[in-house]
Structures are given as C-alpha cells and as structure tokens.
Amino acid sequence: RQHEGPRRVKRAWVIPPISVSENHKRIPHLLVQIKSDKQQPGGVIYSIKGPGVDEEPLGIFSIDKFSGKVFLNAMLDREENDRYRLRAFALDLGGVTLEDPTDLEIIVVDQNDNRPLFRQDVFTGRVVEGAEPGGSSRGGWMGGLSQPLCQHPPGAPSATGTCVMTVDATDADDPDTDNAALRYSILDQGAAGMFSINATTGEICTARPGLDRETMGVYNLTVQAADMSGDGLTTTAMAVIYLEDINDNPPEFTKEEFSMEVEEQAAGVDVGKVFVHDKDLAGSPSWLAKFTILEGDPEGAFAIRTDPHTNDGVISVVKPLDHEVRDRFELTVSVQNEWPLEPSAPASPRALATVRVRVRDVNEAPVFRENPRRISVLEGTPPGTPITTYTASDPDTHQIQTLTYALLYDPADWLRLDPHAGTVRTKRELLHPSAFLQGGWYIALVLARDDAEPPLSATGTLSIEILEVNDHAPQLQPPAGVLCGRPGRGGTLLLGATDDDRPPHGAPFHFQLSPQHPQLARNWSIARFNGEDLLNYFPLRPSHTVTSPAVPTSIPIPPPSPTAPQPSHHPVSRRVPPCPHSPRVPRVPRVPAVPAVLAGLGAARVRGRRRALRKGLLQRSRDDMRDNILNYDEQGGGEEDQDAYDINQLRHPELFSPRAKPPLRRDAPLSSGTPLAPRKLPSSPSDIEDFINEGLEVADSDPSVPPYDTALIYDYEGSGSVASPLSSIVSSLTDEDQDYDYLSEWGPRFRRLADLYG
C-alpha cells in the first residue's frame, strides 16, 4: 500500500484570533464567519462551546448553525476578562463530524475607562525644619520647578534635596498601554512652593530653603495622578507634611528686670518667678530652659529651678535670711536650653536678667546664746544667794522690744528669778541626797518673752551642778570594839568606817592613832593588811595582866579640796581573858597551801612547844629555809627524803598488812601519835561517798582538833624529812601554845609577819 501523508487543513476552517473593543455598544455584533468545504452549502451544521457560550458568563457569544456566523451579544469589560477561548464544531445533517474541532480566540481590546486611584486619601510625612533643598539639573519633577530625581528614604538629606515621602496611585487599565501610564503633580501647596514631586515616582522632596517650624509647622499639599501620561483621567489626594523642631531658637527673658520680696527667717519657700519665651516646640528638649544664678548670692541662700509646665524660672529661699544683716539682694540670672543650639542657628548672646529681692522684717523670737547654761553651786548654799544671770537677746535690732523672764520648770522650787534682769537666786537650801538631782545636777528651764504683737518666746536650760561639801564626819563601824587575849599577849581588831558624804569626801579612809595621845604608840599600832586596816595591841611586858582602859583613836580623811577633813574618835577596849563567850577575834586569813608560800606563812602557825626543835634545825643549817625547799614539785617527803614514801602502798595496798606499823617520818610532830594504817580505797564510784563520810566522821570525833582545822591523815607519806611540819593542820587549838617570836629570826622577808605576830 502507498503510505498516506499528513492531512492538509483547509484554510477556511483555521480561524485567527478575533479582536473586539470593550464597551462595544452595537449589539449584536458580527465577529467572524467560519466555513467547512466538506459539503455543499446547507449541508453543514455549525456550533461553538466555551466561556461566554455554554459556560459562565452565559450568552455573550452565539453562532448561526447553518451560516457559521459568530455574534457578540453583550458589552465586554477588559478589566473583568481580557480574552475568551472557544471551540468550533462542523457536523453533517446526520450528525457526523465533518471537521476536527478548531479554536476560536476572542481578544478584548482595552479602552481608557478607569481613572487612577491613590492608595490612601491622606499621606503624612515629616521633615526637620531647615532641611536642605534640591538642585536643578534635569526634568522629571512637577510642582513648578524642574528638580532632580530624589531616591532617598523620606526625610533623608542628600546633595539633591531632602526627601519627605512618596505618594503612589494605581490604574485598572491595561498597564501595557497609555491608559495606565500615570504622572504625578502638586496642584496646591500655598504660595511658598517649598516642595516638589517626582512626576514618575510620586516622591515629594524639599524644593526651597527656609523651612521654619516657628513660621509654619504644617504644610498641606494637594497631589494629582493622571493616566495617558498625564493627559488622561486624573485623581487627587492630600499630602500633609509636618516640620520637626530643632533647637534653633534660644530662650529669652520677657523683660530685663524682676522684683520680688520675702519674709526673713523663711526657708524652703518660693519667692517668685522669672518669665522666659522660647519659640521652639513646647515640651521638647529644644524648649526646656535651664536657669543659673550668676551673681549676687555668695552665701547660696537662693536657688532657682524650672517649672516643667510653663518653662519659667522659680526662685526660692534655701537658707533663712536675716533682715537685720541684709535687707535686699540683687541677683543676676541667666537662661539657656538644656540641649545645645544647632550650628545652623544664628549666634546670639546668653540671655540675662536682674532679680531684685527685698527681705521683709518680721518679729523674731529671743535667743539664748548659751544654751544650756552650766554652773556649779556648793551644797547647802543659803537662800537668797545669787548664782547666775541668765538672759537672752532679741534679734530684732531695728525694733524696740523689752524682754521678760520667768521660771518655766523648777521642780524643787529652789530658785527665784528676776523677771527683768534675769538674775537667778537660791530660794531655799538644797542638800544631798535629793530626788530632784540627776547625777548631782539640778535642771531648770527659763522662759524669755518679748512684748511684740503677737509675742514670741524662747526657752533656755539652766544646768546646776551641786558640789559636794565635806560636812559629815566618818563613823567607825562597828562603833565599839573588843580585843580578847591572854595576859602578855596582843590582839587584832579590823577597822571600818562609813561617811554620809559623796566622793571625793567619803571613802577611802585613813586611820591613825590620835596625836594627842603619843603614849598609845607603845602598845597600839595601825597596819594595813590585804587592803584592810588592822588595829594591833602589844603589851608592855609579857606578864602584864591589867585591863587597859578604853583607848581613843583619831581617823582623819585626806582632803580632796581645800575643805578640811572631818575626824572622828573611836573607843577601843582591851580585856584580859577569859572573855565571856565572846566570838573569836578575826585573824589574818590563811594563805592557800601552795608549797612555795607555806615556807613563809605556814611556819608562823606551828605549835609553841615545837620551838626548841625548830631552833635546833635552824642552827644546824643557817641557810634560808626557803632556799632549801628545792623539789617543791615532787610528791615525796622532803628534800632529804626523796625515797621515804613507797608509792606501791597506794598502787597495791593488798600487799601490805593492815596491822603492820608504818615507820615514822623524821619530820612528824613530837606529840602526834602513829597514824593509822591506810584505809581501804574505794573499789567503785559508788563507794566514794562512804569513803568521804568515814573521813568526816573521824575528823568530827577527834577531840584534839577544832572542826574547822581537822588533823586528818588520809594516807602514810613516808618519814625521814629534816624539815619541820609547815601546815597549820597540826597547830594548837588555842592561842596559849602559839609563840611567834622566832619570826624575827627569819630575815627581812618575814619582818612584816614578825611585827604582826612576833
């Protein structure tokens, strides 16, 4: 078979695009006629389908099915649909397809039927006053000037001007035609013509110099947009331009001189205002004023601040003024903005004004120059004695006024005050002690008052120190004393005294024998021991057995001031024993048994009957006893008895027979018996109480020792020491066996003890 080539489409069946103008008013309107040459005329049936036929919008297009003519049945709007694509069909009378379907495209041609529209009715922009204008170089600008194109952000300065804002509009017509070619212009901006607009972009910029917010702060421009490149349809909008303030105007005083007055002694009050004017925007930093007092106030009595609402200067007094010292001030005040002036602002000197302030005189209260007044008065000052003159002064030297005085507070009713002279006198005697004295001081208040209308007053404090006077003699306590002792023995009495006077006329006291009785020194002496005074009696002869009469003594007090001390006399009786059950005279307190101290004090209390043995020991060794006590930190028997005590007796008491007789120490008392063997030590803590109670019972039942000085040997301590017993534990119970004469043989270190007990 022969290969069949491509089918050739007949020219009559291929339909080119059809153009039709929008808003066509002649309806119906023949658009095109389609044909098919497959059959004779009348034997073909034509049809079309698509939008505008059998699809929305319906009924716009139609076709004659026998002739193939296509008609427009309605007005077209390009802004709604700018083209239609249809399909055309050709069938025979039997419905058989004669031609393949073909495309039918209908293009809607635009007409200038839409005006431009601005995107908003009012455009707003801002630019600083004094912004630079643009230069003239080429066209493209509207508004009466030929300006260069400004392509900067709104409000930004440039070499070609300062752009403020851009206005823009839209057009619904075909953007590829002049129907949508827009041009912008300024229809109205006032007579100044300060702004211009780019006709193509709609950008508004400054056109002339001289933008001054103080002259005109807001510009209202009417702008227009036109299509057809400015010759077609037009529309308008408003462009509002606000000028932003800069500090190009310094503040100025409304006048050169201001006058005001203020009362004296007023502080923290406003005196008056100085008024200024600033052309810059109210409330802005360029408008706020700052004031300074340049001259006329060396003491800093005035201050000036800015009223934030009115921008005026408020002058106030910060220190009290005194009319009598200075009655008027002349201040020089300057003003300037808080922000500095712009460099473009015209130079001008700083604004100055003179403020005259008059100080008005008012009545002032009296003043006590010395407050409080402190004086001293002797105790017991007689009534009517003038003690001081306490007056005030009146600051009102330009006014003649009289001051009067009165006692405002006198709790003891002790004072009398002259109402005119201010002299203070005693009204009655005031003595110690008194409930109205505070630490020896008496407080009174004095009132001073002037005779102005209304009167003013002041209060002064009068502090009176009541000086102590030595007007009381000391009293011995107890008032009488008794010394008991054996014939030929002395005695000791502890002295004490009291005094009603306060320091320095009271304690401490000094005791001495009466100088009117020099014979007393043979038997009596006063010594100080451990901070206390002891009265000692020494007999003329050891065999003296007579009763001494009452002996007077004198106790003067050292004077702290020219006032003479007050002495007192005290009788002391010396009785020969036996004393009728009188309490034992206090002795010198025993020193604790520290080994180094026992060498001196303990030896002074040994038995009298051991004197011969002690003297023998001292004759064998003439060394000082204190120098021989070497190993005082050892716990043995003595310096020559280091091995006299066997410590095993404590560690192992069971190894030693309780019936065994322990050896005697060489330094044991002659009259003392052999100590008992050691008692059994407690085996547990619960037996300690029994152990102590047994020892206490032995001490209480021993008739050879007093209860307060019990000779109790708790354990055996060895023997063989050449030293005498030093403890007073084995001392005699009474004074009859005591003999202290040997103390005078012990050297100068024991001289004090020898004087007291030898």
TrEMBL record:
InterPro entries: Cadherin, Cadherin-like_dom, Cadherin-like_sf, Cadherin_CS, Cadherin_Y-type_LIR, Catenin-bd_sf
Compositional bias of kind Low complexity: 566-576
Keyword Zinc: no
Membrane topology term: Single-pass type I membrane protein
Domain of life of the organism encoding this protein: Eukaryota
Pfam families: CADH_Y-type_LIR, Cadherin
A GO cellular-component term linked to this record: adherens junction
Listed GO MF terms: beta-catenin binding; cadherin binding; calcium ion binding
Key words, A-Z: Calcium, Cell adhesion, Cell membrane, Cleavage on pair of basic residues, Glycoprotein, Membrane, Metal-binding, Repeat, Transmembrane, Transmembrane helix
Region (Disordered): 549-584, 655-687
Composition bias, Pro residues: 555-565
Cadherin domain ranges (all copies): 12-118, 161-253, 263-368, 369-476
A GO biological-process term: cell morphogenesis
Compartment(s) of residence: Cell membrane
Known role: Cadherins are calcium-dependent cell adhesion proteins.
Protein name: CAD15 protein
Upper classification of the organism: Eukaryota, Metazoa, Chordata, Craniata, Vertebrata
Gene for this chain: Cdh15
